[in-house]
Amino acid sequence: MTDFGAGWDLIILVIVSFIPALIYLGWIRGTERYGKEGWGPLLRAFFYGALFATITAAIVETIIVAAGTAISQNYPGPEFLFLNGNSDAGAFFLVLVIAPFVEEALKGSGVVAFRTSFRQLADGPVFGASVGLGFGFFETFLYGIGAYLLGGLSAGLELIIIRSVSSVVLHGSSTGMFGYGYARSKFHQAGPGTGSYYLVAVGMHASFNALASLSLILAFLGFPGFAVDVAGAIALLAAIFFAVWAIEHVRSIIQSADYPGLLGVTGRYRPPTQPGAPGRR
Predict the structure, then answer these.
(1) 35 belongs to a structural domain
(2) 135: closest CA among 165, 98, 164, 107?
(3) Which residue range forms the structural domain that includes residue 127?
(4) How many structural domains does the chain have?
(5) Is residue 279 part of a domain?
(6) DSSP character at residue 269
(7) 122: which residues sit within 8 A by CB, 6+ positions away?
(8) pLDDT truncated to tens, each residue of the chain (281 aa)?
């Protein structure tokens, strides 16, 4: 393949990775009907997730896996096998435990970084989803490059399309939930706040990864190939359903957090005030 052809392939992979995430971002932005955020801040949050959070997460996870592998090699007991990044147990530990905690923390840092843009409770999940969608976009693009190097453009596009309707949506929804919890703490709402919703985001991420990895887990446990294939197909559909349900749940939270702020004491609609006018948060 010529360098010219490879360059066009790379552009195609970028575009196909980026467009679904951008559509999701517009969809989330449109959910907040009153005091809607401008594209500028949301795109900055998006690229914070795409570049800083994704790259930093990869570095942190690499360091953790390397340290765990060194420990398991120095202390070769079976109780430390899950720390060995070269083992199946270590791979599952990375996917189900390390990645959810590390990635949700780094995506959450993007929500905190844009906290001065929050004017109302609904802004938290909107900015959270923006950061998460950026993370999902760039991670999907990187996975697509890996598939492209192994199987060509069609393999890269296939993986990107599958991840665009599953992993990208999940990243947006899990960080959207964290953003809601952080905004609850920021605006002094009673009940669960930042810490609780961080664990919710981690739990969502880990649950999705478990579904996406089910066929590998069953193969590791010794199930026959046919059962693994059937379970893998069902699990993929379940993972997509879970991701779609989660993003719809985030949208419902944005709507319910957005509308009550427009109600007066009598419960009737009160139009939003102009920027800088009394009563604007």
Answers:
(1) yes
(2) 107
(3) 14-260
(4) 1
(5) no
(6) B
(7) 32, 35, 183, 254, 255, 257, 258, 261
(8) 566 567 899 999 999 999 999 999 999 999 988 778 899 999 999 999 999 999 999 999 999 999 998 888 887 777 677 788 778 888 889 999 999 999 999 999 999 999 999 999 999 999 999 999 999 999 999 999 999 999 999 999 999 999 999 999 999 999 999 999 999 999 999 999 999 999 999 999 999 999 988 888 788 777 777 778 888 888 889 999 999 999 999 999 999 887 754 444 333 334 444 444 444 33
Note whether residue 276 is domain-resident: no
- Return the SS3 of 191: coil
CA–CA distance, 204 with 268 (Å, rounded to integer): 36
- Beta carbons within 10 angstroms of residue 212's beta carbon: 23
Helix residue spans in the chain (DSSP H)? 3-31, 39-47, 54-74, 88-93, 99-113, 123-151, 153-164, 167-186, 194-212, 214-220, 225-258
Residue 167 contacts residue 103 (beta carbons within 8 Å)? no
In a domain, 266, yes or no: no
| Separation CA 13–CA 34 (nearest Å) | 35
